[in-house]
Amino acid sequence: MRRIILLGIAMLLLALQITDLVAQNAKKKTPPPFNWVNPPRMLPPGVQHGVFKSPSMKQDVGYCIYLPPSYEKDTDRRYPVVYYLHGGRPGSEAKSIGLANYFQRYMTNSEAPDMIYVFVNGGPVSHYNLADRENAMGENVFVYELIPFIDKTYRTIADRKGRGLEGFSQGGRGTTRIMFKHPNLFCSAAPGGSGYETEKRISEENGRESENLVFAPGDNTWDLARNYAESKEPPLRIMLHVGTEGFNYNNNLEYMKFLESLRIPFERIIVAGAPHSAQKIYDKRGLELVQFHAESFRRSGALPAQ
């Protein structure tokens, strides 16, 4: 009888474990299929969705753009623009558009000058080039195709003095790589919550992030920073930001020490109590990030001095 009872208890525990495992697997979200065009169901105030034809891929690519309150009225005015790189994989131009609610509030209330923000589709591997996959050159599509299209289509200040770059998580990694690779395109950059530990492993393993994901050797935030440090030209204003409760907090601190060792100037925003979330960081310190870009544009001459 005792054996039967023990066997029954064991079977019950096993059943509970299986049920728990099934529930955990059910909670795991299957990544959505990648698309180069992703029209949002709802758009925040001031945001529009658009597409352009990619010359390299011969297909449409989506983007979202925030136009500031004065854009439609002041038709002779040109504006500085900040390109925002979303987190996560795969890419979608709709991923981070909720941040436009902050931009709208800051600019409507005259807490920040009017600027354009563009939300980028980072491609299948989010802001990386992956030459061995078809139509997976996300960085090149952004740098060589989207930026020129935006400059031709909207009233931007079409020069590095009027361009900024920002992103979070995967987008922070992308921002860091691109700002060091293309400092001739941007005067201001604000990478946030970046996975610098992964980028360091890519550096140390000759481009390998995983068994199925290998990038070009040297195309990572550590090697590109070393390259930039050799000349530090043209000079970048850099603002790293991270939350103390985010899982990339410690490796961001390590990367800050690395930049200091290279004597690359940067500023930092460390948000106490904030998790790995651009929105939570914007809740507490978002205005400082927008004002950071504004000050970069003032120093470059793209915005008038206060």
From TrEMBL:
Q: Name the Gene Ontology molecular function terms of this record.
A: acyltransferase activity, transferring groups other than amino-acyl groups
Query: Pfam families attached here?
Result: Esterase
Q: Which domain of life is it from?
A: Bacteria
Indicate what this protein is called per its UniProt record. Answer: Carbohydrate acetyl esterase/feruloyl esterase
The species is: Bremerella volcania
**Top-down, what is the taxonomic lineage of the species of origin?**
Bacteria, Pseudomonadati, Planctomycetota, Planctomycetia, Pirellulales
Q: What's the gene?
A: axe1-6A_2
